[in-house]
Amino acid sequence: VDLADLRAVTARAQGALAVGHGAASGPEALRAAFSAAANHHLLGEDRLLQAKGAFVAVELKSDRGAMSSVGQLMQAMGLAVNDPAALMIYGLAVEPDLPSDVRISIMAAL
Asked: Which residue from 3, 10, 56, 107 could staple onto 90, CB 3.0 to 4.6 Å apart?
C-alpha cells in the first residue's frame, strides 16, 4: 500500500471522505472490528453504502490466517457498498504488540 493507492481511492470522492475505526479481540474479532468501523460515528453504514471507493487498513496481532481474514473482510466490504464498480484497496500489517486482536480503519470516498 502506498500513496498511489490512497490517491486512487480519494480520486473517486466527490469532495467527501468518511473514516471509521474499530478494534476487537476474541473469536469474533474480525466481525466485531469491521462492524465497529462501519458503524463509527464519522462513517456509518449509510455513508458506506454510498462509497465510490474505500481504503481498508487491517492490523492483526498474529499472521495466523491473515489472508483468509482479509478475504472475509473484503467480502463484507463488497456487501456493505452498493456500487459494484467501487474501488476497494486494502492494506495489511501484522503487529504482535497490538492491544487488540484486530484493528480496522476504513476510509470511504463518497
From this structure: 56
Complete DSSP assignment for the chain: --HHHHHHHHTT-SS-EEEEEEEE-STTHHHHHHHHHHT-TTS-HHHHHT-SEEEEEEEES--TTHHHHHHHHHHHHHHH-S-TT-EEEEEEEE-TT-SSSEEEEEEEE-
